[in-house]
Amino acid sequence: MGRIGLSVLIVAAGFLYLPLVVLTVFSFNDSALMAFPLTGFTLDWYRELGQNDNFLKGFVTSFLIAQPVGVLAMLLGLMASLALTAPGFRWRGLFAILLLVPFLVPKSVLSIAQAMIMSRIGFERGATALILAQSLVALPFATALISAVMVRFDGRLIEAARDLGASPWQAFLRVLLPQLRPALSGAYSVGVILSLADLTIAMFLAGRTQPLSLMVASEFRRELRPDLNAMQVVVLALTAVLVSLSEVYRRRRLRKLASEA
C-alpha cells in the first residue's frame, strides 16, 4: 500500500471512528456540557442510565424484535442462496437483482412503500410489521454471506450422499448444513445488528412499539444529555460483543471443518 492509499485509509478510519471515540469520552466526562476541556472522570451517567426505566424497556423491545429479524434473515437468506446456486436456475440474474432492491433503494423510500402496502392490505403497524420490514432489508446481506459459502461448496458431496442412500433432506442436514453453519451464524448476527441500528423503518412502521432507536432519536431532538452518550456506548459495546462472539464461533467452526477434512 502506497502513501496515498495509507493516507486515504487513515482519513476514512478517522471519519468513521472519531465520532465514536468522542462519544465515548464524553460519556465519562464529569460535566453536563459536552465540550472541551474535560472536567473530570465519572460514572454517574451510566448509573443514571441503569435507573432509567424507559431505556431498559426500549432496549428489551429492540432486543426482542432483533431476534426474529435475525432468524428470518438467516432462513430467507438460506433459501435465496439455495435458489441462486441451483445448477438449473434460469432466472438467476433477475432473482439476484430483486434481492438487491432493498439494498439499492433508499431506506426512506422503501419504508414509505412498505407502510403503504401494509396499510392497503390492512396490516397494522407494530412489532410484527417492523420485524417483517427489517428482515427484508437484512435479506441481501444474509444472502451474500451464505451464497459466498455455497458457491465454494463441492456439489459432488451431495451426490455421494444420495448414492449411499440418503434422502435429499438427509443430505442437506448431514452434508450441506454443517458447512453452512458459520455463514448462517453470520447472517443471523447481521440481521440482529441491522435491526438494532435501524431508525428509518421504525419511524414509519413501529406504531405504538417503541424500540430504543426511536427513543434515542426523540430524546436527541429535545435535549442533548450526557446519559444519551452512555446509552449509545452501551449499545455499541453490546453490538461489538455480538460481532466478536459470531466471529469466534465462525473461526472455531472453520478450524473444526478443516481438521475433519
TrEMBL record:
Keyword Cell membrane: yes
Membrane topology: Multi-pass membrane protein
Lineage: Bacteria, Pseudomonadati, Pseudomonadota, Alphaproteobacteria, Hyphomicrobiales
Any Gene Ontology CC annotation: plasma membrane
ABC transmembrane type-1 domain location: 59-246
Protein's recorded name: ABC transporter
Gene Ontology biological-process annotations: transmembrane transport
Keyword Transport listed: yes
Keyword terms of this UniProt record: Cell membrane, Membrane, Transmembrane, Transmembrane helix, Transport
